[in-house]
Design brief:
Elements lengths: L2 E5 L3 E2 L5 E8 L9 E7 L6 E7 L4 E3 L7 E6 L4 E6 L8 E8 L7 E4 L3 E5 L2
Parallel strand pairs: 2-11
Antiparallel strand pairs: 1-3, 3-8, 4-5, 4-9, 5-6, 7-8, 9-10, 9-11
């Protein structure tokens, strides 16, 4: 019954900031022991862990993206957000928000449908 929905611009210019929001319905994002992830999948490639925010608000980022990534939340709106700065065409991917028992790609039981983000001039 819990549903996740990504939203945000589908086209971003190089050097700009990619901003996405995940809206969670059916349950609070503050639920104990739930971790909320951003995961992306470039065309023809596997999933890549972008980062996560925990039920208590602690954050963690993927090693290659830590300098450019920020994840935050708004508990009043039951949303968590992704900001990825200084984007390049290599950031083009389908971006998913997901929830589960840990940070990472492998233990998420709740998934959004994904949203295509293209970085192009």
């Amino acid at each position: 019954q819990v549903q996740l929905q990504e939203s945000g611009p589908g086209l971003v210019k190089p050097s700009q900031t990619l901003s996405l929001t995940c809206t969670v319905s059916g349950g609070p994002i503050t639920t104990k022991n739930l971790y909320w992830n951003w995961i992306r999948q470039p065309p023809g490639r596997g999933q890549e862990y972008v980062g996560c925010i925990s039920h208590s608000g602690f954050t963690e980022y993927g090693p290659s993206l830590t300098s450019r990534t920020s994840i935050s939340r708004d508990t009043s709106k039951n949303q968590f957000t992704l900001q990825l700065t200084s984007v390049t065409p290599e950031d083009t991917a389908v971006y998913y928000c997901a929830g589960g028992r840990s940070c990472g790609t492998g233990e998420n039981h709740l998934w959004g449908q994904g949203t295509q983000v293209t970085v192009s001039s």
